[in-house]
Structure formats: structure tokens, C-alpha cells
């Protein structure tokens, strides 16, 4: 659930921060414990306990009021039944953790005349989260709760499209295949995108975020490494490298399971022996350098490389016994002989030693060319040892033969062309420069500022290039015609997601201050604008012409979809907004805030004019989710302390003290994570923040759930019993922050948090599976993953 306060940040950071720390600072930041931070943790724990006590007190007072209101009603029921027998209260406890209690006012069958029903209105169930009881009333149409059977839905999901690219913090992760496909990764998915046909295939065997990628000399096999990550219990998962066939998407070899620490940072195939060996650098403190037999999957040699960050590794293309690594303040030349490594450090001599050696390539003449953080391309070669400097008996060394000024800021990438030329990509200047074989500049161009710096380059042919950028875009173009984006995505954590009420488009917003409109049919970004503050929630007006966006400062605005102009804006409080929701007919807008209030607005002129109608005051914590009733008169809301409250909007935003009266109310949408109809989506032992979002389909047959463990679940709807079975889907590499069905329920969209990835899933029923399997061989979105596990 959406909890951007300190409590939730501590919960999520322990689960996700290891995946996204910068390589340069990851080691130093974790070495020395800070007593101040430890005291802050203890203080926060005490504050959490106080908050829980306050909410428990508020809940007790509310229960007393409800009890006082129910007494006359119970007396009337007893008189109408005309039974002298007393009611017995039966409490059933199902399981523990998400233990659910029934409080059913049930009477023995001998107590009633033959015409009376055994289930008297008033049956309730208690669900406990973090020790707090949450009472839910059973709807009247359920006669015997115990006899309800929970089955997984007949519908299933199939990954249809992946939006985004991880260029922000990864290197050398874009290649062009002979099949006409660009291969790159984001989150746990490796995408093969046909740049002309605009279709995707997906390799999905990784269990956590993919960190690196390399292409075999045969241009068919691919090696990819992943980070370690943790499971839902906080236990570390073992990283590994997969070698797989890019044509069939079949895994050929799994390398090093259990041999690497934290994750795999860099991989490279050997060239001189046709790719017989694979070199791997892991993310341990010592950045272990290891060489593996690709066919057998066995380790050939291993050595500690350095305690500094390592950015790249490659075999010498003409000699597989020579390996080079580079990174922070170093470039190392390794020789492998008889299973043992020897190392020589590159000597900078009279040249200024850069802080980072960002990348390197081999020229056709065998020289090594490095790009560094000073903007220079350095040419390295062997030379006789300087006896005066290194002493008598010193052997040959690797020294700088030439320094070429290339870019302003860092040189992030180098790429050799077939004719001996060279391409370089700059950071600060965002330039791509083509160099001759003797490093004379020939052509250059500058990519637009909105795409960021050049992260990596791959050539399609001698003229056309693919460019990965630091703002998670992939560009396609030439020096003559310029470059256009073929892949785009967010660059920071995302939370806001909304689908259009009648068109195949959806809207996203996040911490990068970008608000984006996407097309699910054409699989592209329609438009994107940047705001002054970051967005956290959004919703389309039922008219379909405008979309409202809730921001981090309490301000919200309404955008026209065609003109992209702000047609209305307002501010409610000074805390972040967590939910925007229009009533079914579009006459009201509800704005849920972290100041514990729900602000209600009258909406006119097809969503272009807003007048404050009232304010819902009654929650003891921040608002997390809310839904309107189908008649547009009532609201159901959840809060950060696990409250479920109901509001009569037509009566002036009045809090309904008697929640029993809302048990049969029908809801236009169902996104509240707490409620009788979705109680079964909570796993045993859940702490209340494990589910961030859920969404009921428009046909009310299924409910999709976004959890904190990188999973998307699909349950049947309603789902009112604990431990309900579901279909479970993987692909995200971070907590899944939101899910939403398209207007026709043909697709489901899921949004990752830190992984900046949007996954589009196709929904298919039991009758569609045979047709889907028959067309899998020609499907543009077929994957190598097995059917999801039913949990």
C-alpha cells in the first residue's frame, strides 16, 4: 500500500535498495554503522507503536458508538423472530497472521420456524493485520460463508509488451541481432525488439533484475547476468549468468549459481576461440574475476580483481588468455596461464589519472582504447620498462601511447566499426562522434537534451545507429538525418497509473516529474510533459477528455488530453496526494490526501470546472485508496492504519458510523486493498504494507494485485476467504506499485517502482488458450517462460 512515510521507506529500502545502488558508492556506504540512524530506527519503532495505540483507541470508541446504535435494531429483530431462545455468538479463527474471525449471530435450526433463514443479517468477519482487528460484514447474498470455495480465475495473463529501458545506471546493454532485433533489458525481462516490424519477444528466465548483457561471436547466443535480490522473507537469492539462444529463447547454460556475491556486474565472451569461454565480474567487495567454460558450465579460473568499482571486462579478440578490466581509477591487463591470473596495471605516467575509466575497446591494430571521465580517449600499448623509474629487472609495461581529446565530460561508450573506425558517446555534451582509424574526427551530432547523455551505441549498418541514453531511451538514426526515440520510459520511481474509460490509452506519473500518455495498441508514448513537482496518482474523467494528476505538495491539476494544457488546478493541504477518483457519472472528484482528509469537488463542463463541495473528516491516518458506489452517492476508503470507512457524499460528506449498513452496497470500482470482497488476496503473515494496489476488472470476474515482492497476482472476484489461490506472474525487479485493467479488460497494466518498468499483460480466458498456443510460433510477444504458478 502507498506509504511514502519513514516507516514504509525503511520497509521497502531493506527489500529493494541493494538492486539500485550506484556501483561507485555501493561498497563505502555500508561499511560503518551510524549510531544516529540506529537511534532513529528505535524512535520510529516507538512512534509506530504510539500510532497503533491511537488507532486502536479510535477503533474502540467507534465500536462503542456502533454498539449503541445496533442495540435498538437487535431488539427489533428479536421481537420479529418471536423466539425465546437466546442468540449464541460463534467466533471462528482461521489460521494465524491474516487470521480471520467470524462473529456470526447464528441461531440453532430448532430455534426458528420452518420459514426462517439460518443466516441472520449481522454476520461479520474479523481480519487481523499487525495485531489490529478489522471487522468486515458479510453481504446478505452469502448464506453460508464457510461453504464458499475459492478457485483461481479461469483467465490468465500473457506478457504482451514491455515499456522502458535501463540506461540510467547500466553500461553496454544494447546490441543489434542479425534477425533485425535490438536486444536490451529492463527489470527482470530481456527484450528483443524488431526495429522495423515493431514487435517484441521476451526472455524471462531471470529471477531478479538483469544487470549486464553481452553477445556471442556467433551473433545468436546471449549471456546475461542478474543481481542477487531477496525473497519475500528477506532471504538472499543467488545470482547467476544465463547463456541462451536468441532465436528460440531457450536457456542453454546456467553459469555460477551460488558462486557470485550480490550480483553479476559485467560479462564477456572470448572471441579468439569462437566464444568457448565466458568472463564474469561479480558485485562482491573484491569484484571477483572468473572465467567459465561455456559448454560445460564449469569454472576455469578465479581471482580477486579490486576493491574499487569495475565497469567493464573484455577478452582480447586475438588472444583469449588476455583479459582487460577497467573502472574507478584503474585499467588492468590480465594474463591467464595454467588456470592462474597475473595482473599488470596500466601506467598513466605523465598524463593526468582520471577518476573513472568508463569504457574500452580493441582497435583493429590490437591497441586498447579507453574512454574516461576527463573526456579523453587514451591509446594504450606495450612498452619496455623504464628501468630508472621501476628499477632493474622490470618487465614490459602497458602505458599510454596517445591522448585524444574527445568530449566535454565523460566518455561513456566506445564502439568499433567494421572498417576500423570508432564511435564515441559523450556524457555532458551528449555528442556522438565518428573517428577514423587514426582517431581523426569525421562526423558528429548531438542528441536532444530531453533524452539525456549517450550511454551505449550499437551499429545497425555502416550508417544507421542505435543509441541507449541515460534517461532510459533508445534512439535510432544517422548522422545525416538525426535520431528519433523508438523506446522510452520513466527514469525514476513510478506510482500513478490510470486507464482511459473508452480508448486504448493509459496515463502514468512518477518521481521524475514526468506525466506520460501511452498507447496500448501501437505500444508507444503519445506524449510526455514535465511538471514542477512529481506526480503520485491520476484518474481519467469519465468524459474521457481530461485527466487529473495528484502531486507531492498537495496540489493537483487537470490536463486536456488533446492540447496537453492545464485546464484547472487547486491545492488541498500541504501534504502529498495519494488518490484521485471521479464518481461514475463524472459529477464529483474525490481527492485523498496524506493529511487524513478526502476532499470532494463538484465537476462540470466535462471535467474542466471544479468547485469544492465538502471534506470527509474521520480517518486517523493518511488516505491510501478509495472507491465510489455505483450510484455515485457513497465512498469507501482505506487509510494507512488499516481503517475501512464509508461516507455519504450526498448527505454532505457524512461519515457512516454504522458500517453494517454498507455491506450490500455495490461499488463502481474496487481498488481498496481492505474490504470483504478482497480479503483473500492477503497472504498469511502479511504486515499491511505488502499489497500496494489492486484493481477489479470491469466485468467483475477477477482482481489483479500488486505486491511488495515484485509479483503480480490474478485472483477471482469476489475473493473473501483467506489463502485464496491465484495465478502469479514475474517480470518486475522492484515492488509493484500499481495495476489497472484497460476499459475492455483485454489487457492489464502493471507498474514497477524503482525498476521504472511498465508491463502490459494480455488477458485471455480458458477458451482462448488453445488458440493462443497455436499461434505462439508466429506471435510477436511469445516468451520462453512457463505458465505461471498457481499459488
The gross shape turns out to be elongated
Query: Rounded to an integer, what's the Rg over CA atoms?
Result: 30 Å
Measured between the Cα atoms of the first and last residue, the distance is: 21 Å
**Roughly what fraction of the amino acids lie in strands?**
35-45%
WD repeats: 487-521, 616-657
Subcellular location: Cytoplasm, Cytoskeleton, Spindle; Midbody
GO molecular function: microtubule binding
Pfam family, one: Beta-prop_EML_2
What does this structure look like?
It contains 4 helices and 57 strands. Strand 15 and strand 16 form a beta hairpin. The model is unreliable at 1-33, 80-122 and 769-788 (pLDDT under 50). It has 791 residues and is mainly β. The protein is elongated and about 100 Å long. WD repeats lie at residues 487-521, 616-657. Belongs to the WD repeat EMAP family. Residues 494-763 form the EML-like second beta-propeller domain. This is HELP domain-containing protein.
SSE arrangement:
Elements: H1 6-20, H2 35-81, E1 88-94, E2 100-106, E3 124-129, E4 132-137, E5 156-163, E6 175-176, E7 181-186, E8 189-194, E9 199-203, E10 210-215, E11 221-226, E12 241-245, E13 251-255, E14 264-269, E15 277-282, E16 288-293, E17 299-304, E18 310-316, E19 319-327, E20 330-337, E21 340-345, E22 357-362, E23 368-372, E24 376-383, H3 387-390, E25 397-405, E26 411-416, E27 422-426, E28 431-435, E29 441-446, E30 454-459, E31 465-469, E32 474-478, E33 482-487, E34 494-499, E35 505-510, E36 514-519, E37 524-530, E38 535-540, E39 546-551, E40 555-560, E41 566-571, E42 577-582, E43 588-593, E44 597-604, E45 609-617, E46 623-628, E47 634-639, E48 644-648, E49 654-655, E50 691-696, E51 702-707, E52 712-716, E53 727-729, E54 736-741, E55 747-752, E56 758-764, H4 769-774, E57 789-790
Antiparallel strand pairs: 1-2, 2-3, 3-4, 5-56, 6-7, 7-8, 8-9, 10-11, 11-12, 12-13, 14-15, 15-16, 16-17, 18-19, 19-20, 20-21, 22-23, 23-24, 24-25, 26-27, 27-28, 28-29, 30-31, 31-32, 32-33, 34-35, 35-36, 36-37, 38-39, 39-40, 40-41, 42-43, 43-44, 44-45, 46-47, 47-48, 48-49, 50-51, 51-52, 52-53, ...
WD repeats: 487-521, 616-657
Domain EML-like second beta-propeller: 494-763
Family: Belongs to the WD repeat EMAP family.
